[in-house]
Amino acid sequence: MCSLLLTVFFGTSDFWNSTVRVTCPIALAAVACILTSRAGVLFVGVEGVMLISAFFSIAGVVWTGSIALGVVFAIVAGVVTSLFFGFLSMTLRMGDVVGGLVVHVLSIGLTAFLVEQWFSAGATIGALSLGPSWGSTGNHWLDIVAHQQPLTYFTVIGAISVAIFLRTRLGLVVRSSGESVSVAQTLGIKLVRLRYCVLAAAGTLLGLAGVTIGLAIIGTFDTSIASGRGFIALACVILGAWRPLAVLAASLLFGIAYAVQFRVGAAGQWMQLLPYVVTLLAIALFWGRTQGPAEEGLGLPNDSK
User: Per residue in 261-271, is it b (16+ CB within 10 Å) or e — as a string?
Assistant: First the structure.
C-alpha cells in the first residue's frame, strides 16, 4: 500500500500515462455535458451515447481494418444518438431525464443484440495506438507529455476551445438559452434548433470519448465497457462548477482513481470501488455549492421552435 501511495504522489511514467489515457474519455464527456448544460439540456443519456460510440468504433475497425474509419463510425454514431436523445426529450416532450434513461437502456439492449448478431465470436481487436510513437526525450515529465495519443491533446484543446467559445457572441446565445428560456425567446432565438446543434457538437465529443474507450483503453466490447464514465463525467461538471478548465482538472482526479484501480487489479478488490466512491464524495460535498445554468433540464415551453 505504501508503494502504491508513493506511485500516486511521485509517479512513474507508466502510472501517469495510464492516468492520462483513462482521463480522456471522462474529460471529453464532461466537456460535452458543459455544452449541453449551458444550452439548458441535462444530458442524462451521455453514458448511452458513449456506449454506442464505443461499439461502432470497434465494429468499424473490424469491418474495414481502418482505425480512421472506426473513428468516423464512432463520431457518426455519437451524433445520431445525441440527436435521438434530443428528439425524445424535445420533440416528443419526454423531458431530459426520461429521454436520457431511454437512451441509456436502449444502448445496452441494442449493442448486446448487435454483438450477438454481427460478432458471434466477440468484438475484440485489442487496445490500439491511435497515434505515432515518439522516442524518449530523456526527461521523465516530458516523456509523459510527448507519449500521449492525439486524442489527449485534442481533449485539452477542446476544453480550452469550449471555454473561449462560451465567451463569444454565439456562446452567450447558447448560455442565455440555459439561463432563461423566456429571455432567449424574446431575443428571437430558435431554442429547439439551437439545442439540436449543441447536441450534435456534444455527440461529436462523445463519439471521440467512445473511440478512446473502445480502441485505446479496452479493445474489446461488452455492455459494461463504459463502466459509469458518463455519470462520472456529470459529477465532474458539478465538481468543476461548469467551467471547462476546472472540469478538466476534476476529470484528472477521477482518472487518477481509475489508474489506481487498474494498478491494484485483483489484488485489492475494495480498491475497485475507488472511482465510484470518489464520485459519490464529490457529489455529496459539492452539490448545492456550485451553481449551474438556472433552467437546465426544465424543458421548453410548448410554443418553442
Answer: bbbbeeeeeeb
**Residue 170 burial by Cβ neighbours in a 10 Å radius (0-12, 13-18, 19+):** exposed
What does the H/E/C string look like for 275-293?
HHHHHHHHHHHHCCCCCCC
For residues 150 and 133, give the distance between their C-alpha atoms in angstroms, rounded to a whole number.
Answer: 11
pTM, entire model: 0.84
**Site of grid cell 470501488:** 273
Dihedral (Cα; 163, 167, 173, 176), 10-degree rounding: 80
pLDDT tens for the chain, 305 residues long, are 555 554 444 456 667 777 788 888 899 999 999 999 998 898 999 999 999 999 998 888 888 888 889 889 999 999 999 999 999 998 898 888 999 999 999 999 998 888 888 876 655 655 555 555 555 555 555 666 666 677 777 788 888 888 899 899 888 888 888 888 887 878 788 888 999 999 999 999 999 999 888 887 776 777 778 878 888 888 888 888 888 888 888 888 888 877 777 766 555 556 667 667 777 777 777 666 667 777 776 776 665 55
Burial of 179 (0-12, 13-18, 19+ CB in 10 A): middle
Q: Look-up: residue for cell 415551453?
A: 301
